[in-house]
Amino acid sequence: MGVLKKFEQRLEGLVNGTFAKVFKSEVQPVEIAGALQRECDNNATIWNRDRTVVPNDFIVELSTPDFERLSPYSGQLGDELAGMVRDYAKQQRYTFMGPIKVNLEKADDLDTGLYRVRSRTLASSADQQGAAPAAPSGRPGQGAPGGYGYPPAAPAGAPPMPSAPPPGARPGYPQPAAQRPAAAPASGGRTRYWIEINGTRHQISRPTLVLGRSTDADVRIDDPGVSRRHCEIRTGTPSTIQDLGSTNGIVVDGQHTTRATLRDGSRIVVGSSTIIYRQAEG
What we know:
It comes from Streptomyces cellostaticus. By secondary structure, the chain is an alpha+beta fold.
């Protein structure tokens, strides 16, 4: 069972229907949970072969109407979201430098149904020993290592990391995935393609791969929100994904779409299942 599905079930199982009104709001808690997962993926920093660090301090900005609906449950919802991030990190083998916190804030510039996630890495006292000083509590100023949208300060002996976003990025926010420079492919060898569905790896050994709930699909996804023939991945330069007329559609890197170009690490959501597209040389 996927992390998001477990998160939904935990919310539904809370006593006295605490979240009954929450699910009527324009922004659903599971949407925020998915955004936090993407925030971890998009800001993962590899320090060495055995350690990939992701943010542990999150702010979810909501429109005024959504904030008013969710704020009475912000403490309990924040705890549940933090637990979901912890479960997802364990699944992806991510690590944190400190305790996980998720807070809700009101943003006057957002319309109902829209939200924005900001994150930073705050080191615990153990990780701060021998490292550059972590940013203080609150919202650090532009260019501060460890600030929202910035990578954490590196520990002693680690390669230096940028303390400010590259050109074109909004100050205080992570650089959009589309603006990030692609990793240089290894020279020689054949490109390998695979997908990871809720943590399970499936090799792509043919030019096209059909995903769906039907037993006739190349990769079967046992999810009631997935159509019998939901979507198709075509490998190549570039690789693409195409919706096959599914009922619930596809979301690629946070965008609802019918067709999209895939890059290594692209995140695809079908039903309540999460698919990570991977490709590598050699």
